[in-house]
From TrEMBL:
Classification via InterPro entries: Peptidase_C13
GO biological process: proteolysis involved in protein catabolic process; vacuolar protein processing
Similarity comment: Belongs to the peptidase C13 family.
Pfam families: Peptidase_C13 (PF01650)
Molecular functions per Gene Ontology: cysteine-type endopeptidase activity
Organism lineage: Eukaryota, Viridiplantae, Streptophyta, Embryophyta, Tracheophyta
Protein name as it appears in the record: Uncharacterized protein
A GO cellular component entry from the record: vacuole
């Protein structure tokens, strides 16, 4: 699982299919990935956090792993769920194209063989996996700017000016 802007460029045309290595990436070779759980989003982080806590791709595969019995979910099934949850809904919307590279011959194997977690033997809260709301998500490259903007707007003088200018 590789999360990075243009992460597909690391493997595109380079990953052999006969080396027993499977890779899935957050984006293709030409697009950004998207920050999630950011201040101002529909699902913001707790108020004490002033930064994004995840990205659409990683949040999608980790939440999927948390809500499924990994002895019953295959690599292929999770890939398809993550791909659908992370994909742009239309040409002008946010999201990225999850990609896969390398040896795909073992995609029918169960996830617990690789992630080592078995929810059937743990006390896990069962909940429905919803499509993540990417409303308000930002380009991953802008996450640092959002963090700094939130710090600056919380300064007393700036907060006062923003309030006066925006009222």
């Amino acid at each position: 699982y590789v999360e990075a802007c243009e992460s597909g460029s690391i493997f595109e045309g380079l990953m052999p299919q006969d080396h027993n290595i499977y890779v899935t990436t957050a984006a293709n070779a030409q697009e950004s990935s998207w920050a999630a759980y950011c201040p101002g989003m529909e699902t913001p982080p707790p108020s004490e956090y002033k930064t994004c806590l995840g990205d659409a791709y990683s949040v999608s595969w980790m939440e999927d792993s948390e809500t499924h019995n990994l002895k019953k979910e295959s690599i292929k099934q999770q890939y398809e769920v993550v791909k659908a949850r992370t994909a742009p809904r239309n040409e002008s919307s946010i999201g990225s194209h999850v990609m896969e590279y390398g040896d795909r011959t073992f995609k029918d194997e169960m996830l617990f063989l690789y992630q080592g977690f078995d929810p059937a033997k743990s006390s896990i809260t069962k909940r429905q996996l919803l499509m993540p709301s990417l409303k308000g998500a930002i380009n991953q490259r802008d996450a640092d700017i959002l963090f700094m903007w939130n710090k600056v707007t919380k300064l007393p003088v700036v907060s006062c000016l923003v309030h006066l200018l925006c009222s």
